[in-house]
Amino acid sequence: MERKTILGFMLLLVLIFASDVAVKKTEARECETPSKTFRGLCISDRNCEAVCNTEGFPNGKCEGLRQRCMCIRNC
Fold first, then answer.
1. Residue 74 three-state SS
2. pTM over 0.85, yes/no
3. Buried residues in 17-32 as b, exposed as e (16+ CB within 10 A)
4. CATH number of the structural domain spanning residue 10
5. Residue partners of 45: CB distance under 8 A and separation at least 6
């Protein structure tokens, strides 16, 4: 291959990897906290999210082997 083609290909790879890193840095981190008011086995993410909303969290989901309701917010 010609030297220019190889250099162009390497530059393209660098640009692809650099853009991927930039996207990951801008993603917000999420913090999870067990719900304080949810009772029983967490089966429905919708019910968990509704309880988390009353606790001041924007999201919630059922997690783990014990199926606990985890409230989620951006850190």
1. strand
2. no
3. eeeeeeeeeeeeeeee
4. 3.30.30.10
5. 60, 61, 62
Q: Note whether 28 and 44 are within 8 A (CB).
A: no
Number of folded domains in the chain?
Answer: 1
What single-letter amino acid sits at 3? R
φ, ψ of residue 7 in degrees (nearest 5): -65, -40
The per-residue pLDDT string of the chain (75 residues; one tens digit each, 9 = 90 and over) reads 587 777 777 776 666 665 544 444 557 799 999 999 999 999 999 999 999 999 999 999 999 998 999 999 998
For the range 43-46, what are the long-range contacts, defined as Cβ-Cβ under 8 Å and sequence gap of 24 or more?
A: 43/67
Task: Give residue for tokens 């089966």.
Answer: 43
Range of the domain at 31: 3-74
